[in-house]
Amino acid sequence: xxxxxxxxxxxxxTLNTHEFAVIQAxxxxxxxLCDNGAxxxxxxxxxxxxxWEVYARALANPLLFPTFSATVGALLSALVTGELPRAAAAxxxxxxxxxxxxxxxxxxxxxxxxxxxxGADILETLTAMFNPLPSIALLPxxxxxxxxxxxxxxxxxxxxxxxxxxxxxxxxxxxxxxxxKMVGRNYGLSRAGFVLRILIPxxxxxxxxxxKIGWAFAWRTLIAAELVFGVSSGxxxxxxxxxxxxxxxxxxxxxxxLLTVILFGLSVENLxxxxxxxxxxxxxxxxx
Length: 288
Known about the structure:
MetI-like fold; 11 helices
């Protein structure tokens, strides 16, 4: 005779959600502003402007260090006359030519180094030789080889760009995860597809770093080259504008030219490279 079975009553505990709640204090307006990166950077710039103005007024020597307001006035005056836009346009055109030529040569060197062992050895050797060499130091030779004109500046710009970009791109290709490479081969990607879908996305953080470094080197080299030998093909750039203003003792104009160089650097960093990084590296989860 089997023993009687007893059903176990089902017990259901209900949780009164009204008794528990996650309370998050609303952030103040100042806290929200402090969490905004653009606001913090703008605040830093404002503080630097105030320090500049206060120090220049305390120094009281406009030939040595003009005030920020005088510099802005000289900048606006040069913009109205069109002198500064013409100088900036001449500089940017030269920069564009030299930077693109440097990128093309860097791409060829990186491709050769990635495909063959001898190519890797050549790239590493040339980079060790020429990357530490300041580009502006080649300007006297460039003047002898290419004469007084755009060719000399483009030559030193290529030297400023190619080694940083090629070295970072090659290092990025070598650091791509072997797992990603195996996935690409298992999918049967062609050589071009393997490079475009596996190698370049995997190495893009290093490639982007190389592009930033190459841009910074090229920008500094170009301004220095214009300061050294000035007019190229009948049109002066920002460096020549600064040099001429110094000769005429228009020190606020000198600082206006320097401020223009700084503003271009900030614009390229925040409007070009930051946007590229946002839509590639950050979107792919490769950076925080």
